[in-house]
């Protein structure tokens, strides 16, 4: 009798795994499984369109990546704020060459972070892309340092005296 219950439990557990796999295949847009196409397609105007399934590892990794990029942007804007030349309109400016030389020690991704910072309206500069050597004299204008509650996560506690 115990042997029979053991096999019944094994079959039940296996069926749960099969059902879980089917559910995952239904939401996988790259699945070649024939049943995958019956999942409802979201309209481009739907608020969930282009976003990962809530609670998924993809959503978690996306949030971690977004936080990391925010930390890089914060570091970049603080560097420009420290090293930039004050302007009459309250902004600060720095040449790409000066920023590249000083910031290179901190990050080798300065151009990518500048592009992301510009997309979020923290900095402004002419041109689509900046290249070392060619664009040394391009002026980068700091429009604002990010104001966000996440800022405190990126400032080491020794700088805040332990107050957060």
TrEMBL record:
Give a GO biological-process term. positive regulation of Rho protein signal transduction
InterPro entries for the chain: Abra (IPR026111), Costars_dom (IPR027817), Costars_sf (IPR038095)
Q: Where is the Costars domain?
A: 67-143
* Cellular-component GO terms for this entry: sarcomere
Q: Kindly provide the name given to this protein in its UniProt entry.
A: Costars domain-containing protein
The record's GO molecular-function terms, alphabetically, read: actin binding
UniProt-annotated stretches for the region Disordered: 42-62
> Which Pfam families would you find in this protein's record?
Costars
């Amino acid at each position: 009798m115990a042997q029979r219950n053991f096999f019944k439990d094994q079959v039940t557990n296996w069926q749960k795994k099969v059902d879980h796999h089917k559910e995952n295949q239904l939401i996988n847009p790259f699945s070649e499984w024939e049943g995958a196409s019956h999942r409802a397609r979201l309209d481009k105007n739907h608020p969930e369109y282009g976003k990962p399934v809530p609670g998924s590892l993809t959503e978690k990794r996306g949030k971690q990546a977004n936080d990391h990029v925010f930390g890089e942007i914060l570091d970049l804007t603080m560097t420009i704020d420290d090293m930039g030349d004050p302007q009459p309109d309250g902004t600060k400016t720095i040449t790409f060459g000066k920023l590249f030389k000083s910031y290179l020690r901190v990050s080798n991704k300065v151009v990518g972070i500048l592009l992301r910072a510009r997309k979020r309206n923290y900095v402004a500069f002419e041109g689509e892309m900046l290249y070392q050597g060619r664009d040394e004299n391009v002026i980068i204008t700091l429009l604002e340092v990010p104001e966000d509650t996440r800022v405190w996560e990126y400032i080491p506690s020794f700088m805040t005296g332990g107050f957060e």
